[in-house]
Write a structure and sequence with these properties.
Elements: H1 7-25, H2 28-35, H3 39-42, H4 49-73, H5 79-96, H6 100-107, H7 117-140, H8 149-161, H9 172-201
Helix pairs in contact: 1-2, 1-4, 1-6, 4-5, 4-6, 4-7, 5-7, 5-9, 7-8
Length: about 210
C-alpha cells in the first residue's frame, strides 16, 4: 500500500517556516522538523526551497485574482459596495490561506527568478483593478479623493497589506466584522478626502 501524501502538511509547515524565519533563513530541515519528517523526504515532493515557496503562494495568489475578476465583472453594484466586497474578500483570503498569503506579501516582490514573473503580473493587475475602482468612484461622484486615484489605491492596498504584521484569524464572523470596520475607515477617507485635504492645507505651518 502506498504511503499517504504529506503534501498538505508540508505546505502548511513551509508557510509557517517562511513567515517565522523569512525565506533566506528558512531551511528544508526546519520545515521537515515541523512535520516530523527528514529533509530528504521533502524532495519527494519538490526539488528546491524556491519551488516550495512557489507552491506555498500559488493558491492564495490565484484565488485573489479570481475573486477580483469576479468583482470587476459585477457592474450592478455601486463602487462603494464593490469596494466593501473587495476588502471582505481580501481578509477572507488572509484567513483561509494563513499564513501563506502573508508569505506571498513578504517575499514575492523580492524574488527575481523568471518563474516568479507571473506573480508580479498578478500584483500589477490587482493594483490596476483597485485603481480603476477608485477612479470610477471619483467619476460617479461617490468618492471625493484627497489625492489622485493611483495614490489613493496604493494607500488602500498598503492598509490591507500591513495586516501581515498583526492579523490572526479569529473565525468567519469576527473576520467579517473586522473587514467591515476597515471598509468603514477607508470609506470615510474616500468620501470626505477631498474636503479634508483642503482643510489640512489651511493649517498653519510650523516655524
Amino acid at each position: 500500500m502506498p504511503r499517504p501524501s504529506r503534501w498538505s502538511e508540508i505546505l502548511a509547515a513551509a508557510g509557517e517556516e517562511f513567515r517565522d524565519r523569512g525565506y533566506e533563513n528558512a531551511t528544508l530541515e526546519g520545515i521537515g522538523a515541523r512535520v516530523g519528517i527528514l529533509k530528504g523526504s521533502i524532495y519527494n515532493y519538490v526539488g528546491s526551497k524556491e519551488e516550495l515557496l512557489l507552491a506555498v503562494v500559488e493558491q492564495p495568489a490565484k484565488q485573489l485574482l479570481a475573486e477580483l475578476e469576479r468583482l470587476q465583472a459585477d457592474t450592478g453594484q455601486t463602487v462603494a459596495v464593490r469596494l466593501r466586497e473587495l476588502i471582505r474578500m481580501q481578509v477572507r483570503i488572509f484567513a483561509d490561506f494563513y499564513p501563506a498569503a502573508f508569505v506571498y506579501l513578504q517575499h514575492i516582490g523580492r524574488m527575481t527568478a523568471p518563474r516568479f514573473a507571473d506573480f508580479r503580473d498578478m500584483d500589477a493587475r490587482y493594483m490596476a483593478a483597485v485603481e480603476s475602482l477608485v477612479a470610477e468612484g471619483a467619476r460617479t461622484g461617490e468618492f471625493s479623493l484627497a489625492a489622485d486615484p493611483r495614490t489613493v489605491a496604493r494607500a488602500l492596498v498598503g492598509m490591507l497589506d500591513w495586516m501581515q504584521h498583526w492579523f490572526v484569524p479569529r473565525g468567519e464572523a469576527a473576520d467579517r466584522e473586522l473587514a467591515d470596520r476597515l471598509f468603514a475607515f477607508a470609506l470615510g477617507g474616500l468620501v470626505a478626502g477631498g474636503g479634508l485635504a483642503g482643510l489640512a492645507r489651511s493649517f498653519p505651518e510650523e516655524e
